[in-house]
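Practice problem. Given the sequence and the SMILES for VHF, write out the predicted structure.
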Amino acid sequence: MGGEERSGRSHPRWVVKLGTGILSTADGELDLPQIRRLVEQIAWLKRAGWEIVLVSSGAIGSGMGLLGHRRRPAAIEELQACAAVGQPQLMRLYEELFSERGLHVAQLLLTYLDLDSRTLYENAQKTIEHLLVRGIFIPIINENDVVSYEEIKFGDNDRLSAHVASMVKADKLIILSNVPGLQERNDGSGKIIPLVEEITEEIEAMAGKTRSERSVGGMVTKIEAARIAGSAGIPMQIADGRAKEILQRIASGESVGTLFSLGKKR
Ligand SMILES: Nc1ncnc2c1ncn2[C@@H]1O[C@H](COP(=O)(O)OP(=O)(O)O)[C@@H](O)[C@H]1O
Ligand SMILES: N[C@@H](CCC(=O)OP(=O)(O)O)C(=O)O
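Answer key:
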């Protein structure tokens, strides 16, 4: 089984990060059939005994559509308004789809300050543990974009998901994106690199920014996430979130996308 647990728990625990690109259509609407497919796969993993924590982007992208922005607004207040409008839309959809499968969502909106304070960090950690023990809840985490500002901002969910993976002592972090993995060239083209065991200058040079109007960070922040997860001994895999049954394939141990396995073991 690809989800072999290294933490002494009886079931594997994965943090799965869903990027804006795989949750929305080219027009910026939430992509209902695609989100349904992802929810089905997560429900399948839950039935097979996995513990899943989601980190979901898509609030700003969803809000942009509703507020009539075709391009990402520059003004922070406008971005925050998009997040305020988009986040409940996203959660409503997740709840609707998960509840059809006997599961329910639990929302956690975090800022950098929450992870920087020991008390707040431990509170978030305990809340997630409490939810996972019940079995039927899917914690869904996003940055609290409505109150975040430059100094207290993660700014991207790639790094946030790596911090979350470390917080919940996940067995693996999976980043599902609209690219199939780390590719050879920094414009997101070329062959996929299947395994990264060390982040060398050559690997860093492959990583470029996003080309999307709604996403943040591109491959640069995914490499940073791999480093954060790696320093907690957690492997990270980047894979194509639109590929058929991608989570089941990863669970069965199939080699897909790019696996970052960076040394330090827990
Ligand atoms: N070496 C690379 N391999 C794959 N994608 C890359 C690479 N360098 C830059 N990219 C870009 O990263 C982007 C994917 O990240 P991003 O748009 O932030 O997705 P997400 O919303 O899933 O986080 C794509 O636009 C792609 O062109
Ligand atoms: N917190 C933001 C997402 C930020 C982000 O990292 O986006 P992405 O690059 O699509 O994962 C939102 O919900 O729109």
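Check your answer against the key. Residues 19-20, 57-61, 142-143, 145, 156-157, 215-217 surround VHF (ligand 2) (CB under 6 Å).
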